[in-house]
Amino acid sequence: MSENIEQPSRGPQLSEQVAQRLSDAIQAGEWGRGARLPTEAALGERFGISRSVVREAISMLRNGGLVTSRRGSGSFVAESPTVSLRLAIPDPGLQSVVEVLELRRPLEVEAARLAAERRTPSQLRRIRNAMVDIDEAVEAGLSGVDQDLAFHRTIAEAANNTHFTAVLDFYNRFLHHAIRVTRTNESLRETFMLQVVGEHQAILDAIAAGDAESAAHAAAIHLEHAETRLRQAPTDLLERVEAQRGSVAAASSVPESPEHTGDNSR
Questions:
Q1: Distance CA 171, CA 64 (A)
Q2: Which of 11, 27, 87, 186 is the most buried (most CB within 10 A)?
Q3: Beta-carbon-side half-sphere exposure of residue 230 (alpha carbons within 13 Å)
Q4: pLDDT (tens digit, 9 = 90+) per residue, 69-84?
Q5: 38 is in which domain, residue-wise?
Q6: Are residues 51 and 160 in the same domain?
Q7: Of 112-116, 135-139, 256-260, which gets the smallest average pLDDT?
Q8: Is 74 helix (H, G, I), strand (E, B) or coil?
Q9: Same domain, 68 and 133
């Protein structure tokens, strides 16, 4: 990596900053199509950050179609990488999270409606698997942020309209932070967590039944309730989000291993 790549500043959205730095480097030709990215350890040393933050940033780039992962080999620049429009990193306050929820509502409600009408059996299986992944992550003591994001993306994929996933991937880095905040808030109350599980299940059940209106309604209710829960958040919620992020970073001491990608049938 060239020496003129600016190091990210410390802040509540460090992984988003790193994702943007890496995206800039790729688009500037630092790594060509199909080129292997440096290891998480190397990138962490370069930016002066933990490997968990690097891993989160690369996950954002992968969801955005800029990089791919190969089991046993690492992360690579996509052969046909996408180039995203640029948006300033939003204010880290709760109001910006509410604004992201407002943006999600029309997109994800319609995606759920179309998924109920158009999903294939394999797409339905992936949605089910994604929901199980959330439960398993929570049981393992993880935040479930990536798994929650994947659940909603598989629904967008099942709409069978590439524009839905393109838009979702475009604001992925903002959505990632918003879901981290909402899930941290929801984890503070067992009743909130049970509500989220029930809401996800309602969306899945409606899509499985091919009931487009019920799927759209369930998705709308989920996002409306997420906003309501957020408005009941404690005043120190953002500090709790950062504390959780820090604890994950401190626990990140296992050897690096490429992430598995693909459709795991259960």
A1: 9
A2: 186
A3: 24
A4: 887 789 999 887 665 5
A5: 14-77
A6: no
A7: 256-260
A8: strand
A9: no
